[in-house]
Amino acid sequence: MRATIGIVAAGLFTQAAAGQVHANDGRREAIATVTEYRSLCQRDDGRLWGLSLCGPLLIVDPQTRTFDAYRDIGRDPTARDAIVSDTLPADVGVANTAIDWNGTRWTMVVLPLPDDPRKRAELLMHEAFHRIQPERLPPPTAPLPAHLDTREGRETMRLEWRALAEALRSHGAAQRVAIRDALSFREARRRLGATATAGEQALEINEGVAEYTGKRLGSADGVASTLATLDDYDRRDGYVRSFAYASGPAYGLLLDRWSPGWTHAVRPSDDLGELLYRATGDTPLPDPSSVRDRYGYADVHADEQRREAARDKQLAVWRERLVDGPTVWVPLQAMQIEFDPRNLVAMPGIGTVYPHAILHDTWGTLTVTDGLLVADGGQSARVRGPASGKGQSYSGPGWQLALSPGWTLEDGRIRQR
Q1: Do 240 and 172 form a contact (C-beta atoms < 8 A)?
Q2: Widest CA span of the chain, in angstroms?
Q3: In this structure, are strands 57-60 and 104-110 parallel, antiparallel, or unpaired?
Q4: What are residue 85's DSSP bridge partners?
Q5: Which of 14, 61, 325, 392 gives a 20 to 30 Å CA spacing to 219?
Q6: What is the phi/psi pair of residue 4, to 5°?
C-alpha cells in the first residue's frame, strides 16, 4: 500500500476542465467506485464514529495524474456533470489517503483499485475514515517506532499478534487469557526505548484505527479478514511504519466485544491496548517469558536471528551510501512523501531509510529508487551523491530531481537562490 504524509494543498482545477466528462471506460470505473463508496458509507450512516464517512472523492491515475472528482455524495454519480476530470498539479502527492485541497477535504484513492471486492471496500472505508480523522480523532505526533526494526521489538510484536489472533478465535475465559498474553508482550516491547510507546500509539491511532474502520465496514467478516492480515504480517519485513495495519483492527474488534461503543469515547491520547486492558479487568499481566511458548517463540526467535544478521548487512550498505559516502542534502520544509510503508528501515540515532519514494517540497520533486534517508526530527533528508546536471534538472545514483524556479543545487545542497 502506498501512503502519504505531510500533504500540502495546492492548485485548482479549472472551470473549463470541470465541464469535461469522461465518456469511456474510465468514467464507468469512476461511477462504479463512487456508487460503491456511497453505498458503504450510507449503510454506516455515521453510526461507527458519530460522523458520516460520506464526502468528496478523488479517483486518481498515478501514471497520468488525471483524476475524476466527485464532490456531492447526494448526487446520482451517473448524472452528466456529477463526476468531472482534470490533472493534479505536480505538487500534490498521489496516494491512497485524504487531503485538503482547493478548500475541500477529499478522500483520495489510486487506480487500479483492488479486484477483490472485500479488499476494495476495506480500502474505500479506510481512506474515508482518514477524511474525517482531523475532526474526530487527530493522531498525535511522535517519532517512528524504530525499535520495531530490532530483533526484540519484532519478536514481541509477532508474539503479540499471535496472541491477538488466538483471542479473536476464542470466547470467554480463553479469550481473556489470550488478551492478557498479548498485552504482556506489548508491555515488554514498549520498554525497549524512551519513545517506543508514543511511536506505536501514534501509528495505531492513525493507520490502525483507519484499518479497523475498513475491516469493520468494508468486510462481511471483519474477524476473518483481520486474522488473515495478522497471519500475513507475521511473515513480513518492515514493521516500523506498517505494523498498525495488523494491530489496529485486532484491538478494535476485541474492543467491540469488551467495550461496545468505544469508538464514541476514544481520544487521540488513548492507547488501544490500555483501553482493552481496562475493559478486561485491571489484573496483573503474566510474565511474557512464561507464556511465549504457547505462541511458537522458538520458531519466531530463530526467524528473527536470521533476519537480524541480514538486516545488519543491509544497514552497513545504507550507512556506506547515505552516511559515510558523498551525499546530497535536502531541506524538508513542507514535505509530501509517497512511499511504501512496508519497507522502511530504521537507522538508530540517524533517521529512517525509504528505499523508494517520491518527495515533494517547496523546492520541487525528488524521485528516489535507491534510498532516501530522512533524518530523525524530519528537518532534512539526503540521497547518495554525487549529483550531475544543471538548471532545474539533476540526477545521481538512484534519484532524479526537478527543481522549482528560484532553487538550485550547489555543493551537494539544495538551496534557495
Answers
A1: no
A2: 68
A3: parallel
A4: 68
A5: 61
A6: -130, 140
Distance of alpha carbon 181 from alpha carbon 289, whole angstroms: 10
How far is it, in rounded angstroms, from Cα 253 to Cα 244? 14
What SS3 state is found at 395?
strand
Phi-psi map region of 290: left, alpha, beta (phi>0 left; psi -120 to 50 alpha) = alpha
Yes or no: say if 324 and 221 are a contact pair by the CB < 8 Å rule.
no
**Alpha-carbon distance 135 to 372, whole Å?**
32
Peptide bond just before 112 cis, omega within 30 deg: yes
What is the residue whose three cell numbers read 472505508?
125
Residue 47: count of CB within 10 angstroms of its CB: 12
Q: Given pLDDT bands bounded at 50, 70 and 90, which one contains residue 25? A: low
Output the nine-digit C-alpha cell for 147: 525499535
d(CA 209, CA 128): 12
- Is the peptide bond prior to 386 cis by the omega test (within 30 degrees of 0)? yes
Q: How many residues does the chain have?
A: 417
* Overall average pLDDT of the 203-227 stretch: 98
Q: What percent of the chain has pLDDT over 90?
A: 86
Q: Cβ contacts of residue 141 below 8 Å, gap of 6+?
A: 202
- Write down the pTM of the prediction: 0.88
Phi, psi of 266 (to 5 degrees): -65, 145
3-5, strands of its sheet edge to edge? 3-5, 336-339, 357-361, 364-368, 399-403, 393-396, 388-390
Which amino acid, one-letter code, is at 108? Answer: M
Can you give the pLDDT at residue 80? Answer: 86
CA distance 212 to 208: 6
DSSP string, 125-168: HHHHHHHHHHHH-PPPP----GGGGSHHHHHHHHHHHHHHHHHH
159: left (phi over 0), alpha (psi -120 to 50) or beta: alpha
* Cα 58 from Cα 71, distance rounded (Å): 9
Task: Work out the number of other CB atoms within 10 angstroms of the CB of residue 267.
Answer: 8
Measure the CA–CA gap between 239 and 245, rounded to whole angstroms.
10
The grid coordinates of residue 177 equal: 487469557
For the chain, give the mean pLDDT. Answer: 92
